[in-house]
Amino acid sequence: MSAKAILMVMVVFGTLFASCYTKDDIPVVQVPEEVPNKYIIEGTIVANTNGVLETLKGVTVTSDKNGVVSSGDANFIVTVGSPDTYTLSLSKTGYDPISYKVVVPSAGDKITGQLISVNVQLTMYRENTSNPGTGEVGVDGGNVVNGNGTLTIPAGALTANTTITMSVNDDVKQAVEVTGSQEAAAQFLLGEFGPGGTKFLAPVDWSVAYDALSDFYLANTQLQYRANNNAGDWTVMTDGIVYDNDNDKYNVSLTHFSQYRMVYLASGMTLDAVTETLPAIATILNTNPSPASITEIPYKKYEGAELTLGDGWNNITNTSDKDQIEELVKNAVMAKVNVSEFKAFIGEPVAANYVLREPITLPYDYHLLSKGEQSMDYYVFTFKVYKKADNATVELKVNVKVAGKVSIFVEMDYCGAHHTHGSCGHVYHGGAGGGMVIGD
User: Structure pTM?
Assistant: First the structure.
């Protein structure tokens, strides 16, 4: 092909391609259709009974923007239309109705069809117990009030607006387990706060009244906390509790949200351990011609523990105050001396059988000579209260007697009616605690 022909081909093709691309024929890039984000609130409902959390079924959950959204199961899911603050109200027979505010955040970008999920745990309380006070507090600070409790959050303590919840239980009166040299103690106030784990840049003040007492307030109190609202050991707060007589409230400073309890402690304790002779031990005689196998020794022992109120209690003339303080004291002492209740046992020994680990063979015309002893622990606890009228100290003495270990000593003796009295030899020495064998 000549050069002229080649040039003609190029011109023709160039003209053809140029004619295919006008400004109206520029390829258009397809833009995907926007897919809405999906926003949900999901969570679990629990019941709080004196600080014990358990999942709770049969709760009706209502959203202020969606109506009734869930009923029946302890778990729920609320589908909401957009980022916003939603109020979820909970109702169930036998429980106080309660509402929580839940903030659903924005995705921050264009709608991309992603799932935005907020997970919460909502708590209900039985009727006639304290509900959480709820309030949104910002960086400028604020107060959350619930019945007899107030939480004061100063400016700068929070870095963002936060929905704060507070519940106060002033009808706890539960014993606090103590070990070693620790004094007897019982908790009298329990507080729970949310969101759990919140840390503050500045201390917040928790002020709460203990309405169970009208004329007195408790001395020797202690603040303790534990994380996760129902797990782990309690930690003692060194700052402690300050009672404000002007406002009749107990005040503490908190730097983080956990489960907190206020504890009433004995200010002193003495222990006098003594050994007393048992009231009766039965003698066993073998009158049968053949040897007898002795597996049990009958006896009588004291059981349980006895508490009596000592000096100082006559200074509390208000019956209601006396009953409340006495109940706290009894719970505290029961935990210390490790008994489940107090009852009168002095002068009322009960029949028991001491079961031998190995039988004793008792020959004909022999008998067992036995005697027994029982250890007794005598405690004197001292508790203190103050009069609200003049801050005068009142010391309250509590006397406690606890029945302890039983020891039985047995000797075999030949004292037959037809024989000369023989010698006696010590063959067995055993012990029992509360009717249970413990060893030699």
Answer: 0.64
